[in-house]
Amino acid sequence: MARGFRLMPPGLEEAYFKRVPQGWVFAAPRPWWVFGSRPTYLLTDAQKAAVAARVRLNRYLRAPWIAVAVGLVLLVQREAPGWLNRDSILLFALLWVVAVNACENRTMRRLVAGLPPAAEKISVTDMLTQQTRGASVKTLTALGLFFLAGAAFYGYLWFASAQWREFASFIAIFSGGFAVIWFAMLIAKLTGKVK
After folding, report:
1. pTM
2. What's the domain range around 192?
3. CB of 12 within 8 A of CB of 139?
4. What is the mean pLDDT of the chain?
C-alpha cells in the first residue's frame, strides 16, 4: 500500500530504542533539562509500539514550536534589528530547547510511570546507529539534502545581507552540521557499516 507524504518519515523514532534480550531499552527525554544521561526503561514489544507513537507525536508537536521561533526571530529582526546578535540567538536557542524538552518530558511521564528502569544506557552513538537502521536510504538522503540546502541558503544570506549576518551564520553552521550527520548516517547505511 502506497503512503502519502508524511512530515516525519518512518523510522526516525527508532533512535530512542535499542533491542535487548529482555525486550527493548527506551531512552526517555531528560527530566526538565537538556544535559545529563537519559533515563532508560525496559519495554515489551506492545509497550514499544505505544511509546514509539508518542515519540512520533512529540516530533510532530515540534512544528508549532518551530513556527513560533521563526515568527519571533522575524519579528525581532523587523522591530529591533540590532538586538538579534550571537548572544541573543544562543540564549533563545537554549530557552527553546529547554522548553521543548520540558514539554516532551511531560507528555512521556504517564507512559513511563511504573516501567522498570533499565541498567543499560543508550549513548548518542547508539541513538544514531538505531536511527540509521530505522530510516530508509530515501529518508536519510532527503534529510541530508534538506539541511545542506538550508546551510547553502543561509551561507548565501550571510554574504548577501549585513542585517542578517549573525543569524545567518548561526543557522548555516547548525544546518551544515546536521547535513554532515545525515550524510554520515547515509554513508554508514550504504556501505553496510550499519545493518
Report:
1. 0.77
2. 136-195
3. yes
4. 84
